[in-house]
Design goal:
The protein is α+β, with helices and mostly antiparallel strands. The protein has three helices and six strands; from the N terminus they run E-E-H-E-H-E-H-E-E. The longest helix is centred in the middle third of the chain and has 9 residues. The N and C termini lie far apart (36 Å).
């Protein structure tokens, strides 16, 4: 059985818990899934204009804690963020960040902030 990671999700300026009700901001994701797929599978809408192909930056998120629970940033992701002038070490494209097992990690949960305004 694949490991699961708890993801705590906030929208910039307001937590999803405040926006939609209790427990909506805590989701479980299976290792090997992209962060984008984990969010979409649990009903959390996140723009992804390129279809999750690292050709835009609409699915970018800010990783507040637990970055070690995501795959390392690859060159294509870094280049895309630099090209769009939004690169920071803690900004990730949700379509490129794979959930990793917490087995060798100090953190047991991942905290992210969606960098999109509330709908």
């Amino acid at each position: 059985m694949k490991a699961q990671v708890e993801i705590i999700v906030e929208r910039e300026g307001v937590s999803l818990e405040e926006e939609k009700g209790s427990d909506v901001n805590r989701i479980l994701a299976v290792e090997g899934y992209t962060l984008l797929d984990a969010l979409l599978d649990t009903g959390i809408a996140l723009p992804h204009e390129c279809g999750g192909n690292c050709a835009c930056t609409t699915c970018r998120v800010f990783v507040e804690a637990g970055a070690e629970l995501l795959s390392p940033m690859e060159e294509a992701e870094r280049d895309r963020l630099i090209l769009e002038n939004v690169y920071q070490p803690r900004i990730r494209l949700a379509c490129q960040a794979l959930i990793r097992s917490p087995n060798n990690s100090l953190s047991s949960d991942l905290r992210i902030k969606l960098l999109i305004p509330p709908s």
